[in-house]
What does this fold into?
Amino acid sequence: MNLIHDFEHQHFAHCESGVMSTLLKHKGLHLSEPMVFGLSGALCFAFLPFMKFGNMPLVSYRMFPGHIVKTLPKRLGAAYLRKRYRHPEQAMEELDDHLAASQLVGLQTSAYHTTYFPPEMRFQFNAHNIIVVGKQEDEYLVSDPVFDQIQRIKSADLKLARFAKGLSAPQGLTHYPIDVPEANDLDLVKLIRKAIKKTVNMMLYAPVPWIGVKGINHLARRVARLSARGDGRYTRLFLGNIVRMQEEIGTGGGGFRFMYASFLQEAYQVTGWPALQEASARMTAAGDAWRDFALACARIVKSKNGTDPAEVAPLLKACGENERQLYKMLKSAV
Amino acid sequence: MKIEDVPQDDNPTFKGYGTKAVYAVDERGRYTKTATSGWDVEEVVLRDVLEDFDALAADAKRRVLQGETSPIEFFLYRRLMDLPSLARSMGLWQWQVRRHLKPKVFKKLSVARLQQYADLFRIDLSALTHFKETTDIEPDS
It folds into this structure.
């Protein structure tokens, strides 16, 4: 059954960081998912009112899809192959060649054509990440980091998923590490400092009002104004959209905040800087605040307009304030 | 989030699909990856948006049967898309897709174009031409 030997499926919170962690591990470099996430500086907050998905503004708790695959190899100094295709047939043939050569490859796919997803979650989302680990007759065996078991997908469906059109179209993106540095050669302390600095700077000083802490406050103001609009359905969908981006789509809980807190804790073990331990605890608290906000939103959605949406705006403001203080502290620490 | 606070609400959506991984703190303050069977909050907001799609699809169905719109609109909502994403997935402009929603224009569409829509919606061509809510509309089709 052509399963890449000595491959062990691992269950992760997020698809992209999970794929990256698995691919690197297979090459002999052990970095946990939070480490991959933190080192690539993937934590973010973005509220882009002018970019609509299903008539809802884009809300994101991390950098744009593809950021990790693009950034991390560069920061690690790893030789990394990323290849897009024009012809689906060629892409599928090369995938088979990789499998025959026992090469583990990461693919970008569309969730819509990913047949092993629950039907209710098959939205038009083109930036899902998977690893193909084998082929059996007409089915590929897939290590999807957000599932706890190996999944199967028909080759025709995989082809559709790899060549779906639309926003951030995968174009058959195939990626894998060619050569990774030895763990001993990595200057983790330096990498951690650099990554945290980047994240902190973006969250505090992004020059646009939609990114970072400013973005959170911007969203809070928008939420406070929702009731003035007097459209119950819109309010429900708007709040629901935020919560779904925060919890449902594989964030490890609290819109990636818990994953980042885990990274900070690991970073503390590497560097020994006590401030990181403290920052980790605060990041956990920030994640908990986001969860409280999500819970309040769900109550409003459930009550079908029985509650005033303006009530959740202060919770959101608090999330912004939490994070602002936390990043300030981190800034002086690194 | 502490490990004992990780919700285990058995979300119906994820039933039979395994668990999700989240990060939480154990009793000694160390972060661990742990599994959850779902959180009510996720289910509530997901159901809400799905109900909205259901309502849109039901309304579209009524208008298809009355000859006011083409079956494309029904399947558009059935497949959890909106007009911009449908247009992008088809490689068309939005105004072109909007035109295809008119029954008169829809009737004149080429078989190739209809097949392209059917492939995207993962349905039989006949379900589009002779509108029916096929059962093989379920995504595993």
Residues 274-302 of chain A form the longest helix (29 residues). The radius of gyration of chain A is 20 Å. Chain A touches chain B through 60 residues (CB under 8 Å). The mean pLDDT of chain A is 93.
